[in-house]
C-alpha cells in the first residue's frame, strides 16, 4: 500500500526493440453495474484478481482531503467474514501477494495467487466491496499509519514536498491542487459517519471494474464472479463535479522552503491536457527527447558536457482531467537557478523551432515500442493496463491500440505541441530551496 508521490526522476528506458503482441480479453457488465474484464493466459499457473474504483483524491471534499488514500489502507482492516488483522495472513498463507495504490483519479487493489486460489481472490475482493468493517477502531489505527507514512515519505524526506508545492501552485480550482495523502487535520476532524458515507458513495460495483487475468477457465470464472459479485447492491449513480482552470497566460512564480535539503531545485511546470488527448502522447515523447537517458538533450548538455546540473529531468504527468508537464534541475557548484532555467528554455526552444532528426525520430519510435511491450509483459501488468484503459480512458482496446497513437506522431507534431504548451508565459516557475535559518 505504498503511496506514490512524484519522484525527482521518472526514467523509463527501453533497451530492446520488440514487436507488440495482441492481448486477448473479454468484457461484460453485471446487472449491478460492475464491469468485468477477463484475460486468459494459461502459460503459467498464476492468477491476478484486481479491482479498480473510480475514486481518487480529486473526488474529496476540500475540507476532508485524504479520504481516498485513507481508504486504500482502511479497506484492509477486515470484513464481516475476515477478522481484523487477518487479510494479509490469509493471502500469504495461500501463496499469494497483494497490494493497493491511490492516485488523484482512482484506487487500485489486487492479489496475485496460484491459479488454484482464484476463488479465494474473488471472494476476498467481493468481501471488501460488500462487507467492509468500518469502525472507530479501524479509523484510529489507520489514522496513525497514514500519519507515519506522511512523516516518512514527505515531512522527513528530502524533496518530499515536491509534488505538494508544485500542484498547489499549478492548479487554482481543480482538486488536483491538494496532495493525494491529504491533510492530517482533515482526517483528525472527520467523524465515523463521514467515512461510512464515503464508502457507500464510491466503493460500489457501478463505480468499479474487476479484472481477472491469468490461468483461468472462462466459464467457471464467470460463474464465480456471478456468485460472489452479483448479489452486491448497485450504488447510487455518481455525479461528478467538473472544474475548469483559467489558462495560464503569464508566468506564475512560487517559492517553497524544505528543511530536509541542502541543494535547491528549480521546477518549471506547465498545465497540459487530459491523458486521453493525443497531445498528451506527444508530450510523453518530448519528455523522452529531453531527459530519457544519458544521451537525452538536457542530461547531455547540463550534466555531461557543461556540468551545470547534478540532476535534470522532464516528464509528462498526465491525469484524467488535466496534466502537468514538469522540468526540474538541481544545480552543480555555483550555477544559479536562473542559469538553469535559461539553459532548459534553450533546449525547449530548439524543439519548438527545429524538427528532430530522422535518426532521433526512429530511435524515439523504437523506445516507445519497447516500453509498450514491456508494460504488458506480465500478467500483473496486463491486469493493471486493462483496468486503467477501461476506467480512465473509457477504451479497453487501447491495450492493443495505444502504440498506434505513438506511431502516428510525426516530427512536425512534436514541434507543434512544444510550441503549443511549453512557453514561458504558460508556466509555473517554482524555486524549491533549503529552509532559511532564523539567524539568516
Automatic annotation (TrEMBL):
UniProt signal peptide: 1-20
Lyase recorded as keyword: no
Domain Peptidase M16 N-terminal: 36-175
Example GO BP: proteolysis
Domain of life: Bacteria
Molecular function via GO: metal ion binding; metallopeptidase activity
Pfam families assigned: Peptidase_M16 (PF00675), Peptidase_M16_C (PF05193)
Location of the Peptidase M16 C-terminal domain: 192-367
Keyword line: Hydrolase, Metalloprotease, Protease, Signal, Zinc
Keyword Hydrolase: yes
Protein family: Belongs to the peptidase M16 family.
Protein name: Predicted Zn-dependent peptidase
Species the sequence originates in: Sinomicrobium oceani
Lineage of the species this protein comes from: Bacteria, Pseudomonadati, Bacteroidota, Flavobacteriia, Flavobacteriales
